[in-house]
Amino acid sequence: MGKMTDLGLTLFSLEKCHRVVTQEDFQILYGDASMASLFPGLSTGSFLTLFAEEEQEELKIEVQYLKPLNVACCVLETLAGVPLELMILKREEGLEILCRDISSRMRTLEQQMYLFRYFLTTPVSICITDAEGNILNVNQAFLNLYGYQASEVIGQNPRILKSGRQAPRLYETMWERLLDPALGSWSGELLNRKSNGEEITVMISISSVRNSNGTILGYIGSAFDVSRQKWLEQNLRNLNHRLNETSRLKSELMAITSHDLKSPVHAIVSRAALIKETMGSLSQEKLAEQVDKIIEAGKKMGSFIDDLLDLEKAEAGQVYLATERLRMDRLLRGCVDSIRPSAGSKQIALSCNLATNPRPLRADRVKLEQVFTNLLANAIKFSPDESEISIAYRQEEGNEFIDITDQGPGIPEKDIAGIFDRFAQVRQKVARSTRAHGIGLGLNIVKRYVEMHEGTVDVSNNVDRGCTFTVTLPGCGKVASGADLAALIYDPENAVEDILHLSLENKDITCYLCHSLDEVQRMLHFEYPELVFVPNKYLTAEFTALVEESDLRGCGSKTLIIGIQTQKDNAPEPVGCFEVLETPILDMEMQTLVKDVISYLNRKNN
Question: What is the mean pLDDT of residues 180-184?
Answer without folding.
Answer: 91
